[in-house]
């Protein structure tokens, strides 16, 4: 295209654009319509490409518009997507928060569990302590039982000691009757002898003048009879108790109807209990100015007219009308009939077979 055409085109371009626009066409000035007429077909040839170009532009604009619409739609979609995403973000955030709170909760629970574990450990320790305490209490209980046992044994010893202090009652005492108190027994009177063989002797049997009968039952020999001041028998149970509580000496003093006297001393005398029939358990060593008649009677039970414990076919207690440690009725009997005659008399055969007028049996604790 030459320069002239270019210039012309620049000149005419506003007109061409106006001509293509139907709306603006009516508002064209009178001058421009005249120009159109002048241009004629010449103008058309020149303008046609321009018109085509304009039309293409319009189409492009339409395309652009459509694209813009599409973009708008897409943007709307995008917005909605963004909205959705933001919502999801929010939800996610919430979830995260929730999970973190769960986590915290779990941590808290974990701490609680740990704390409970500590508590349990503490309780277990306490329980252990209680176990120990219980054990110690049990031992204490056992100790207490032991103490109670010991106390019982001590009580027993004490009762024996009491009996001992009681049997020593004649020690340092003047001649006469004194009351003895022994545990588990009624108080009873004894005669303390200081003249026959020194101090501290307790009289357990005495014959003086035959006022008192010694022809008596088991029960009477067991409990004793007579008056401690005069003729009497202290009683097998008491003699057992005294000689059982501690070692005792035995002293026997005898006088016959001719006035001759003698004595027998035994260093360790004791008799058994009732279930042993008050048998003579021991007599110890003999001393005296007579011969020992009692040695044959060791281990011999007591017999009475109503209690036959002897070795005789009959009953020595009945035939001799007395109670004594009878063997085959033999050797001696200080509880015989009070008689100067030769029948069932009071007798100490190892000395002589004459009847005796006076006898006294005494005991005292060995240590005195
Ligand atoms: C001894 O007692 C019995 C009955 O127990 C009696 O038969 C007897 O006569 C008594 N003897 C004397 C000497 O009293
Ligand atoms: C026998 O002795 C006792 C005590 O010494 C006395 O009380 C009694 O009177 C005496 N009896 C006779 C018959 O002498
Ligand atoms: C009598 O003494 C014997 C021997 O010491 C003893 O075994 C028995 O238990 C005693 N009996 C009574 C009733 O005390």
Automatic annotation (TrEMBL):
Gene3D superfamilies cross-referenced by the UniProt entry: Gamma Fibrinogen, chain A, domain 1
Domain Fibrinogen C-terminal: 161-367
Species annotation: Drosophila hydei
PROSITE patterns (alphabetical): FIBRINOGEN_C_2
Keyword hit for ATP-binding: no
Keywords (A to Z) from UniProt: Coiled coil, Signal
InterPro entries: Fibrinogen-like_C, Fibrinogen_a/b/g_C_1, Fibrinogen_a/b/g_C_dom, Fibrinogen_C-term_domain
Leader sequence segment: 1-19
Pfam families reported for this sequence: Fibrinogen_C
Ranges in coiled-coil conformation: 50-84
GO CC entries: extracellular space
Designated name of the protein: Fibrinogen-like protein 1
């Amino acid at each position: 295209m030459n320069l002239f055409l270019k210039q012309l085109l620049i000149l005419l371009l506003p007109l061409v654009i106006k001509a293509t626009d139907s709306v603006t066409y009516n508002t064209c000035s009178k001058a421009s319509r005249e120009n159109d007429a002048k241009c004629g077909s010449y103008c058309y040839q020149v303008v046609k490409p321009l018109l085509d170009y304009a039309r293409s532009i319009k189409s492009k604009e339409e395309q652009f518009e459509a694209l813009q619409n599409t973009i708008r739609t897409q943007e709307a979609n995008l917005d909605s997507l963004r909205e959705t995403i933001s919502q999801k973000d929010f939800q996610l955030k919430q979830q995260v928060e929730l999970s973190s709170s769960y986590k915290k909760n779990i941590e808290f629970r974990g701490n609680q569990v740990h704390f409970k574990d500590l508590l349990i450990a503490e309780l277990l320790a306490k329980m252990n302590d209680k176990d120990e305490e219980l054990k110690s209490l049990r031992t204490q209980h056992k100790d207490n039982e032991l103490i109670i046992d010991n106390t019982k044994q001590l009580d027993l010893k004490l009762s024996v000691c009491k009996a001992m202090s009681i049997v020593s009652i004649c020690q340092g005492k003047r001649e006469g009757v004194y009351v003895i108190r022994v545990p588990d027994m009624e108080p009873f009177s004894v005669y303390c002898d200081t003249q026959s063989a020194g101090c501290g002797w307790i009289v357990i049997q005495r014959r003086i003048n035959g006022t008192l009968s010694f022809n008596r039952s088991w029960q009477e020999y067991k409990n004793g009879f007579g008056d401690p001041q005069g003729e009497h028998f202290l009683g097998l149970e008491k003699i057992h108790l005294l000689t059982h509580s501690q070692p005792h000496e035995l002293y026997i003093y005898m006088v016959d109807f001719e006035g001759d006297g003698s004595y027998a001393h035994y260093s360790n005398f004791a008799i058994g209990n009732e279930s042993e029939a008050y048998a003579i358990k021991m007599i110890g060593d003999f001393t005296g100015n007579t011969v020992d008649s009692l040695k044959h009677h060791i281990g011999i039970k007591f017999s009475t007219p109503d209690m036959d414990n002897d070795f005789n076919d009959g009953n020595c207690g009945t035939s001799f009308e007395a109670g004594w440690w009878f063997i085959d009725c033999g050797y001696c009997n200080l509880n015989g009939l009070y008689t100067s005659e030769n029948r069932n008399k009071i007798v100490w055969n190892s000395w002589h077979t004459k009847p005796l007028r006076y006898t006294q049996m005494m005991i005292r604790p060995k240590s005195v």
